[in-house]
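Deviation from plan, reported transparently: glutamine complex.
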Amino acid sequence: MASVIERLHQQLVSKEISCEALVQQKLDALNASEYNGSNIVLDQYALDLAKKVDTKIANGETIGLLEGIPFGVKDVYLLQGTYSSASSDFLKQYNSPYTATAIQKLLDAGAIPVAKENCDSFGHGSSTENTVFGPTKNALDINKVAGGSSGGSAVNVAKDFTAFSIGGDTGGSIRQPAGYNAIYGLKPTYGKISRFGLMAYASSTDCVGPIAKELDDIRIVLNTMAGKDVKDQTTFASDAISDQATSSVLPKGTKIGYYKNFIETEALDPKMKQQFKDMLAKLEAEGMEIVPLDFFDADILVATYYALAMAETASNLARLDGTNYGVREEGENLKEGYSITRSENFTAETQRRIVGGNQVLSQGHSEEIYNKAQALRAQISHHFDEDFKEVAIVLSPVTPSPVPNIGDIMDDPMKMYLSDAYTVGFSLGGLPTLTAPLALETGLQITAAKRNEEILFTSANFLKQVL
Ligand code: GLN
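Because the crystal trials were delayed, the predicted structure below was used instead.
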């Protein structure tokens, strides 16, 4: 089993390294980092936990696999004892009143959070440039963007500053930065992991998920976080992904689908198009059955996603008015206070989405836009249901273009939104989808039917062997 977690666990158990030394190494690397992937490094917090693990080891007690393993947390999760800023001025000094369920499960397993990680503010973005902490830089090329919105989490993993990190994915925010930094990132089936304590962006597609260098680490962390939670009524109970999933291969004749219009389009970078086609040819040579599928055009997916995501974020962020959370600016009267607070403390991109979302929901427009988007979403979901009766998995690029340079897309919101063309559809369908650092320069997206994460792991293992 190739696993960073397993390797570190062995080092701790064999006393090759103390937990305190391990955590200190990570903290030093995070503090010295030029990549700007962390909003806060949790020095004392992490060291206190590490000492407890060392005491257990010294007393001869057995420790669990995740015990003492340093991990990163996207700064949109509540973690009691830390600020949860959502990379915004609004919540820069907002103390987490409790801990998110998914993070609590990792804490209960003994894993140690070492950083709250930089991201696009409230998850609004595709590059980790829409952040009041300054852009995160790509792990492979410091002039390029980290991807987003979970950019800090992806870069910290890619640079080995954390053993794994927990990102959040509403429309691609785990998969795309994982692809940009050549590591794994999983968006599970909607509802597999509790969203309780994750700041809501678009509640109907928000997903918690792991980012890691090895497939087995994705599996271990997913199994730890998954499960029904009474605090999130959309969650469901699920079986753990088996160890075999990451060592098995796809049988010959497996039907592998791809969406023709994702590939046969001018919008896809020519080099990436070629890489995708070469991959299909290799898979065919391995005895797989390649099935070209029809689908909605990517711009319809993007339009549907953004109409709904903006509507939901406008609604979710209405709670931030200076009364209950974060900063408060005084005005002549209460209403003016709200408006000054909201104008001064959301970034321009977040304001654009709030204004757009309120437009989508407003009387006279909601029938035309919101209801239409909901109807389209139902059609998209239905399409997926039919597709996965025919094929076992669908392969697609993660993005249509290579990684942009820092500064390239921030001034052009349309360009930013269109860069999500291949990730947002699967979010609307609530499907499990995994980015693997394979085949294309921004990674390969492997998608399966709802609740069939198992095959994603087997497929990724197989593809890694044959590509
Ligand atoms: N880039 C997409 C957006 O800005 C997805 C973000 C996300 O998944 N949080 O909405």
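The pocket of glutamine is lined by residues 123-126, 149, 169-173, 201, 309, 420 (CB under 6 Å). We consider this an acceptable substitute for the interim report.
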